[in-house]
Amino acid sequence: MRCPLEEVERREGGRTDRNSVPPLDEPVHAHGCYDVEVDTSVQGSAEVAKLIVAALADPPVVSAFDRLRTSKTGDRR
Fold first, then answer.
1. Structural domain range at position 66
2. Residue-wise pLDDT tens digits, 24-47
3. 3-state SS string over 4-47?
């Protein structure tokens, strides 16, 4: 799941139900190797759910875990 930092900060700034989480200084999961990716800043929750369901119904032959396991470089895409 991806979302630009500016959008995360905007969302966190509007929260009243809990303490705000400070922004991260570095990308989470910077390896960048996934079976499915969504961007919640441009895709609504219904579209995200459909993409995830479709990915689960038709998984890749070689999964992200397989690619990470066999990768020998820093860029694991």
1. 5-70
2. 656 666 667 888 889 899 999 999
3. CHHHHHHHHHCCCCCCCCCCCCCCCCCCCCCCCCCECCCCCHHH
Contacts (Cβ under 8 Å, ≥6 apart) of 36: 51, 52, 55
Distance from C-alpha of 50 to C-alpha of 1, rounded to nearest angstrom: 14
Residue 76 in domain: no
Coil, strand or helix at 59: coil
- The answer as to whether 77 is a domain residue is no
- In a domain? residue 75: no
Task: Give the pLDDT score at 76.
Answer: 45
Task: Return the DSSP state at 2.
Answer: B
Determine the pLDDT at residue 2.
81
Q: What is the mean pLDDT of the chain?
A: 79
- The label of the residue with tokens 């860029």 reads 75
- The total number of structural domains that make up the chain: 1
